[in-house]
């Protein structure tokens, strides 16, 4: 294992007082439906609206003084970008987020509002990545990736410690799954203390890179498709160094959901739990509602983020067309 339980405990010490220990709230409707106590981990109320700030903050605080003086760089326009921007600002570290000219203005403004410099380069993600590589090589900035990094995984693992602290007899944990940094950290934290607990990863059918890679026995390329769970899109990296092996070795089960099942999760969060959750954050709810996962004891459903376009959210909870885009 690239990281140990002690790394996650160390991350908890680093993050203490800087980020929220988010609440674990019982869901009366899901408990009644599933016949076991079901709790929601309200991580969408984390600073920046998602858990990604945990890993980002842990990684920034773990940098050497020299690395901190030079700054960090990343390419994400979504939750990882927000997490990096916030983490860097709090630590007084320069942060550059590179993006292509195709990125919509509201996303650029969102990152800038958190205090990061945005550098618009070229018309593709690849050109943005070239600029990242240049900043690393020529100016000595440190690139922090969204999931495949020991300090990022350890930071996300603090969620597992919080779940255990608040529900010591937990039996099943449902975790949204993309690159696997989130579930790898949680699985290591939870299974070290409670080997009998079951950790289940939930992805969307449309472009489940980790699920396909597990099936193939190695990291594989998977076509990225439009989905309501947009924060779960993207590959795991053909040269994946950490998360693939950890997910393979620690995670008990992975499942995938249709777009309608993800939409049902968003609707349930809103109408029954009074929570606004993005598609990627609602897949655990969707999996329980679709009976894709059947919990066998006290269960935690991780709501991982809330950064959804509110026009889209309004359409989904109003019962309109469930799909984010026209092609599914
Ligand atoms: C990034 C993200 C995930 C998935 O995390 P991985 O570490 O890539 O598996 C889940 N939910 C939300 C809201 C995210 O932003």
From TrEMBL:
All copies of domain Tryptophan synthase beta chain-like PALP, residue ranges: 20-305
GO aspect biological process, one term: isoleucine biosynthetic process
UniProt-recorded Gene Ontology molecular function terms: L-serine ammonia-lyase activity; threonine deaminase activity
KW Zinc-finger (keyword) present: no
Transmembrane segments: none
Annotated keywords: Lyase, Pyridoxal phosphate
SUPFAM superfamilies (alphabetical): Tryptophan synthase beta subunit-like PLP-dependent enzymes
Co-factor(s): pyridoxal 5'-phosphate
Family statement drawn from the similarity comment of this UniProt entry: Belongs to the serine/threonine dehydratase family.
Protein name (Swiss-Prot/TrEMBL): Hydroxyectoine utilization dehydratase EutB
Species of provenance: Roseospira navarrensis
Gene from which this protein is expressed: eutB
């Amino acid at each position: 294992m690239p990281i140990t339980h002690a790394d996650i405990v160390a991350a908890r010490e680093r993050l203490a007082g800087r980020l929220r220990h988010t609440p674990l709230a019982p869901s009366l409707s899901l408990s009644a439906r599933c016949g076991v106590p079901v709790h929601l981990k309200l991580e969408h109320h984390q600073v920046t609206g998602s858990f990604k700030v945990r890993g980002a903050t842990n990684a920034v605080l773990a940098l050497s003084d020299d690395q901190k003086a030079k700054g960090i760089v990343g390419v994400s326009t979504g939750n990882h970008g927000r997490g990096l921007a916030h983490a860097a600002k709090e630590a007084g570290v320069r942060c550059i987020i590179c993006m292509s000219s195709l990125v919509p203005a509201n996303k650029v403004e969102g990152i800038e509002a958190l205090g990061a410099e945005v550098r618009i380069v070229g018309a593709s993600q690849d050109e943005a990545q070239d600029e990242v590589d240049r900043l690393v090589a020529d100016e000595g900035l440190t690139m922090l990736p969204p999931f495949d990094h020991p300090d990022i995984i350890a930071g996300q693992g603090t969620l597992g410690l919080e779940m255990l602290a608040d529900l010591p007899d937990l039996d099943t944990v449902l975790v949204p799954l993309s690159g696997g940094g989130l579930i790898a950290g949680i699985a290591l934290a939870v299974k070290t203390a409670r080997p009998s607990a079951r950790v289940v990863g939930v992805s969307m059918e449309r472009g489940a890179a980790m699920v396909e890679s597990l099936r193939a026995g190695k990291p594989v390329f998977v076509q990225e498709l439009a989905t309501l769970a947009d924060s779960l899109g993207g590959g795991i990296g053909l040269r994946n160094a950490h998360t693939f092996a950890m997910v393979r070795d620690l995670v008990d089960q992975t499942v995938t959901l249709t777009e309608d099942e993800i939409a049902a999760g968003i609707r349930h969060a809103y109408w029954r739990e009074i929570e606004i959750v993005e598609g990627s954050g609602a897949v655990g709810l969707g999996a329980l509602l679709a009976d894709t996962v059947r919990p066998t004891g006290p269960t935690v459903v991780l709501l991982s983020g809330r950064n959804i376009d509110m026009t889209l959210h309004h359409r989904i909870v109003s019962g309109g067309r469930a799909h984010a885009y026209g092609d599914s």
